[in-house]
Amino acid sequence: MTTTEATYKGVPLTHGRTKEMIDVIIEKRDTMKTTEIAKLVGFDSFRPVNAICRLLNTANGTTPKKVKRIKEAKNTFSNYHGTGKSKARQLIADSIMSTKRRHSNVLTLPADTWIMEKNILKQKSGYKFTAVERDKETYQQMVKNLITNNLLFDSVIGTANKSIGEHIVNDGEDTYSSAILDYCGFIDSFYDEINDFMKRNLVRKGGYIAITLAENDRAINNSLFGNGHTNNYIQNCYVENEEVSGAKVTNDLVNFLVHNNAGYKIVTKFKYRDKKANMLLFIIKRVDE
Question: Which is it for the CA torsion 98, 144, 185, 202, positive or negative?
Fold first, then answer.
């Protein structure tokens, strides 16, 4: 004799799953981290929540679709492609892949495409990521693309529909092995967020903070240049062969962040242009001395 397994909204009611639990996941999955939902419904890990989300999407016939970018999200760019962007991604990947995979937890802003993360995993699997996205519509698409990709699904520790600043508010020192902050906007919007991240030492020693920003050519008065080119400002903020001359806003404000937060050094600066935007990549290392 055969029996029919009970299901609810396309999810088999096995392994401790209940209708109430599934309803909670449906209600909360677009606004809470998967780790938070897991605790809420009584799971020891976020993975059963991801598995249920996958089943829900399959039952509803959900397929990835192009996300409409919200007009209010000013100060951001959608330059996903281009030779400059590809080289920048590889520079970031090389930095991340120089760190250990064991116990890794890379904080990242993958948007809906996960291009950077898939690039790293394709070259060197085993890294784990925590993914954050502030725009709800982009976040929803990001999660849908996550649960339909096995490589990503097994590599993501958690997700959050928040800004970086909101997400890290309760994080302690050494929470992340590295961070990929692909903002692509002007630094004015993110300066305080990055400063807080560095001041609290949320990346472990030996880890990297990769920051992508739009270039701002406005010059600012930088008094630190008057202190001589052998001080810590020059040693920690300028890379090999970089010309030490009058300052531009984006470059100098990132330099200030490193200068004002002890234990960091800029190891890579890469300037490129994709589409209509001049971009700057900074890779900062938390020195392990």
Answer: negative
The pLDDT tens digits of the residues spanning 31-57 come to 777 777 887 888 877 778 888 887 887
Task: Decide if pLDDT at 162 tops 90.
Answer: yes
Retrieve residue 40's tokens. Answer: 């809420």
Cβ(99)–Cβ(106) below 8 Å: no
User: 109: which 2 tokens?
Assistant: 């802003």
Contacts of 187 (CB under 8 A, 6+ apart): 194, 213, 216, 249, 250, 253, 254
Annotate 35-52 with b (16+ C-beta within 10 A) or e (fewer). bebbeebebeebebbbbb
Measured distance CA(35)–CA(46) in Å, rounded: 5
What's the rounded mean pLDDT across residues 176-204?
93
* pLDDT tops 90 at residue 126: yes
* pLDDT (average), residues 108-118: 94
Q: How far apart (Å, rounded) are the C-alpha atoms in residues 209 and 198?
A: 9
Where do runs of H (alpha helix) occur along the chain?
Answer: 19-28, 34-41, 47-59, 83-97, 115-123, 136-147, 150-153, 164-167, 191-199, 232-237, 249-260
Mean pLDDT of the chain: 81
Domains of the chain in sequence order: 7-59 (no CATH), 83-286 (3.40.50.150)
pLDDT at 164 over 50: yes
CA separation for the pair 1, 263 (Å, rounded)? 68
- How far, in Å, CA of 2 to CA of 116, rounded? 47
